[in-house]
UniProtKB/TrEMBL annotation:
Its EC number is 1.8.1.2. This is assimilatory sulfite reductase (NADPH). This enzyme catalyzes the 6-electron reduction of sulfite to sulfide. This is one of several activities required for the biosynthesis of L-cysteine from sulfate. Pfam families: FAD_binding_1 (PF00667), NAD_binding_1 (PF00175). The keyword Electron transport applies. It is an enzyme of class 1 (oxidoreductase). Coiled coil: none annotated. Residues 24-251 form the FAD-binding FR-type domain. It comes from Coemansia reversa (strain ATCC 12441 / NRRL 1564). It comes from the Eukaryota. Keywords: Electron transport, FAD, Flavoprotein, FMN, NADP, Oxidoreductase, Transport.
């Protein structure tokens, strides 16, 4: 058999399941390092992953995000195949993304279809049409009506998946080709790049917190992509893309940079700091950099703590303000640390063309803005109403940037 024919017939064996998706430039990168950053005993699992990009033409700018195409868990897929009565080895050709693809049933469900993702109402309706048990058909249709909306919402809140529905409504047995049509494709997830290409040529780093929860039955569920990333081994190859982001270093090396990051929101700031560290090594005079970093406990989640301390000692990181919210009785958050620095914030933002960045979860956005408004009113001679307008202007001129998720 010709090599190319073998690749189509036995895609798993030849890795063609990793092939690029149409319409997006993708790259195959290799895991070169993966370590857990939080102690094993701690409930939050945060990992640092490095990918070797040296065999690719992948390039990225500071602040870009990496799109990761994650796969489903092979064991979970096998269990589903058994329950649904599918032969995982059977080859199936179907059109996806406008092109014919031949994969085994197992590969379709592991590499292409979001089997453990959230089904839309359309899927419930489509499944009803296949249900041979009238009661099941009725229930599925009812769930899509206004009368069934409370239970539908409960099911969404309980993170019901395509697989859950197919296992619950056992009289609905669409053929596999219909499943390929009805189940949405796995979507890539984005992760802020945590490295500078100048400091780490041929490599790209991520800082990822795994997402886990229990449904109402007490079953452990894991986020599609973070489960995948957490299960990788050194040498594994994965498909990624590069997505430009709003997180850009200011145009001038001399401009002050003020960064506020919570948890994995630290990722792009590690890249910022590394980029400026390289510039400094090259003899360029770089402006002040202040980091406000927040997490729960210093001993558990001081992400890149040793590196940060070294940059602080070196003076590159002119300010390092840490808010470990649960290390003392009173909760301390990044906005509290920013309030302590009100004079510096007003001076760098209003008089020195400074740029402010917030990255991580959405919840501190309002409090952080209030801290900035407080700084402008107290030390910038600006009225509260005007301070809000100044922040809007700073946003317009890309000097007050949020990347929250
Ligand atoms: C620009 C950008 C940068 C980012 N940078 C980082 C970063 O540096 N580090 C980082 O850790 N993360 C980052 N993220 C977040 C990341 O993209 C993912 O959203 C996150 O990792 C969760 O992905 P997942 O596939 O593991 O979880 P998912 O499977 O997408 O699940 C996420 C949530 O969706 C809900 N959900 C899942 N399944 C269902 C269902 N069947 N029905 C209903 N609800 C459901 C659950 O509430 C779950 O908690 C970034 C996001 C963006 C947009």
């Amino acid at each position: 058999m010709l090599a190319v024919a073998k690749r189509v017939v036995f895609p798993e064996a030849f890795g063609t399941q990793l092939a690029a998706r149409p319409g997006e430039k993708t790259f195959m990168v290799k895991v070169s390092s993966l370590r857990r950053m939080t102690p094993d005993t701690y409930d939050r699992n945060i990992i640092h992953i490095e990918f070797d990009t040296s065999d690719t033409d992948l390039t990225y700018e500071i602040g870009d995000a990496l799109g990761v195409y994650g796969f489903n868990d092979a064991a979970q897929v096998r269990a589903f195949c058994t329950q649904y009565g599918l032969d995982g080895e059977q080859l199936v050709t179907a059109t996806r993304d406008g092109q014919g693809q031949t994969r085994s049933v197992h590969s379709w469900l592991t590499h292409a279809l979001d089997l453990f993702g959230r089904p839309s109402k359309k899927f419930y309706t489509a499944l009803a049409d296949f249900a041979t048990d009238e009661k099941e058909a009725e229930k599925l249709r009812w769930l899509t009506t206004s009368e069934g909306s409370v239970e539908f919402k409960d099911r969404v809140a309980d993170t019901t998946t395509y697989a859950d529905l197919l296992n619950e409504f056992t009289s609905a047995r669409p053929s596999f080709l219909y499943l390929v049509d009805l189940i949405a494709p796995i979507k890539p997830r984005h992760y802020s790049i945590a490295s500078s290409a100048k400091m780490h040529p041929g490599s790209v780093h991520l800082c990822v917190v795994t997402v886990e929860w229990k449904n109402s039955k007490g079953e452990l569920r894991m986020g599609q992509c973070t489960r995948f990333l957490n299960s990788l081994n050194i040498g594994d190859e994965i498909v990624v893309s590069v997505k430009p982001s709003v997180m850009k270093l200011p145009p001038l090396d001399s401009q002050p940079v003020i960064m506020a990051g919570l948890g994995t929101g630290m990722a792009p700031f590690r890249a910022f700091i590394e980029e400026r560290a390289v510039r400094k090594l090259q003899g360029v005079e770089v402006g002040p950099m202040t980091l406000y970093f927040g997490s729960r406990h210093r001993a558990m989640e001081y992400l890149y703590g040793e590196e940060l301390e070294a940059y602080h000692a070196d003076g590159l990181l002119s300010g390092l303000q840490l808010a470990f919210s649960r290390d003392q009785k009173a909760k301390v958050y990044i906005q509290h640390k920013m309030r302590e620095d009100a004079e510096l914030l007003a001076s760098q933002m209003l008089n020195q063309d400074g740029c402010f960045y917030l990255c991580g979860p959405t919840w501190p956005t309002g409090d952080v803005k209030d801290a900035m408004v407080g700084a402008f009113t107290k030390f910038g001679n600006i009225k509260a109403g005007d301070a809000n307008r100044v922040i809007e202007e700073l946003k317009e001129s890309e000097r007050y940037t949020l990347e929250v998720y």
